[in-house]
Hints:
The protein is of the alpha/beta class. It is 36% helix and 26% strand. Residues 9, 11, 13, 27-29, 84, 100, 126-127, 151, 153, 235-239 line the site of adenosine monophosphate.
Amino acid sequence: MGKLVIVGTVAFDAIETPFGKTDKILGGAATYIGFSAANFDNVDAAAVSVVGGDFPQEYLDLLTERKVSIEGVEIIKNGKTFFWSGKYHNDMNSRDTLVTELNVLEKFNPVVPEGYKDAEVVMLGNLHPAVQQGVLNQMTNKPKLSILDTMNFWMDIAMDDLKAVIKNVDVITINDEEARQLSGEYSLVVAAREIHKMGPKFVVIKKGEHGALLFHNDNMFYAPALPLEEVFDPTGAGDTFAGGFAGYLAKTSDFSFENMKRAVIYGSTLASFCVEKFGTERMQNLTDKEIYKRLDQFKSLTQFDIELN
Ligand code: AMP
């Protein structure tokens, strides 16, 4: 059984899209990653995060029900949970962050549970880069694969810490705008090359409804996003992608470029479910049957034969 440590926020989100608005609902990078990675059997996943005393136990239970361990989720009784609020533009491809309240995250010291310190795969989801590094430092065996996700918020306030942790990971997954901000390059091919130089051997650039690119030295792979009839809420799609990517690699324990291509397809497939409902709703009771059906659709969407003479 492949162990997977997941780091990231467990949060309250308030979301506004052209289709509606939510009050504070369950969100957070680790939550989405956890729900996504939970779809792989033979993966023993544990979330490392922090919440306040205001966080409903039933939200934590949802992770436990999906067999994601919450042993590493600290509860600070007299603290307030991280809160994020965002509003999507009409095209749903871009959003404005309205509120980011770090609250209990401000002084968070992550603790990796003893039983997970030897995990093969570590997924460092969106959180302060010093916390991401703190988790890496606690691993007793060097993980076979470390993956880092981040966002512009941390580039704006903690770029030096971020560059320090990026040096120590094997894979980075970020969106196109963030890749440009991190590298200072507009072309994503050039941006990926520059990010390689910062440390990660593999660079995954997520392009929302335009799919995802995987780079490894001079090798490049592209997977489109599955065109959907309805997109209600893109929140968490990037994290769900990362959870599918990391979960598949933890399950298969094969970290070659060829297998990472399959991991990108799993990530894209799982993300295509996430956006169909508000928040984590669609991810809470996804079935294997639904996933296989969509993988099949993905296959026929992208497969073609051509004769080259
Ligand atoms: P995504 O749409 O994949 O970028 O992820 C959205 C999730 O990231 C939401 O559930 C938020 O709670 C969480 N989030 C937003 N801002 C931050 C931040 N600065 N650090 C960590 N997580 C965040």
